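Please check what follows.
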Amino acid sequence: MGRNILVVEDDRNISDLIHMYLVKEGFDVRIAGDGGRAIEEFQRETPDLILLDIMLPVMDGWSVTAKVRETSKVPIIMLTAKSEVFDRIQGLEMGADDYIVKPFEMKELIARINAVLRRTEIPNDTSKRLTFDKLVVDLDSYELIVDGKKIDTPPKELELLYFLASSPNHVFTREQLLNQLWGYEYIGDTRTVDVHIKRLREKIKDHANWKISTIWGIGYKFEVRNT
């Protein structure tokens, strides 16, 4: 059985085209034509990934994302209009893992779906848990623990923090982070990284012994101080 993709798109021509290509790639595909139906399908059977349009009848994509994130960290790729930069940032801030701009090439869509799915697959024989003073970043269980409290964190934010914390005090450019974590290039759109860093800082704050530091004009690093 292939990976299960829930496609939420009210334009029948677009959803039919996506369905055709994804089935050809070996995915099991379900279609929801509005936000309300999307929630029903999600609750009936949790998909491996949700491909979610923003402008939908009944419930828009943001509302669907918020509802899904109440109970699940299933990867979400949002479909946005080309000129609506705010939609992209809003989607990321609400917990989407990625976005793709309409109109898009089907090869690019499939590549992004595969990239997101690969990032959610953790080898069973590999331990991915980092521990610092009052901070645990665990990709085995996809948990972030700060001061002993579990903090709800979307997968992409946790992966970004894990990547930075895996190389303490090493500076990464935004372009390097995009390439490593998203698996392809957002041409000129490094704000994707900035949005995720902002949300991480709101969750973990600064600590006496570690913090996410901005290196102006370059990028970011997970700074660890000697104690």
Remarks:
- The mean pLDDT is 85.
- The domain at 129-224 is CATH 1.10.10.10 (Arc Repressor Mutant, subunit A).
- Helices lie at 12-24, 35-44, 61-69, 85-93, 106-119, 155-165, 174-182, 191-204.
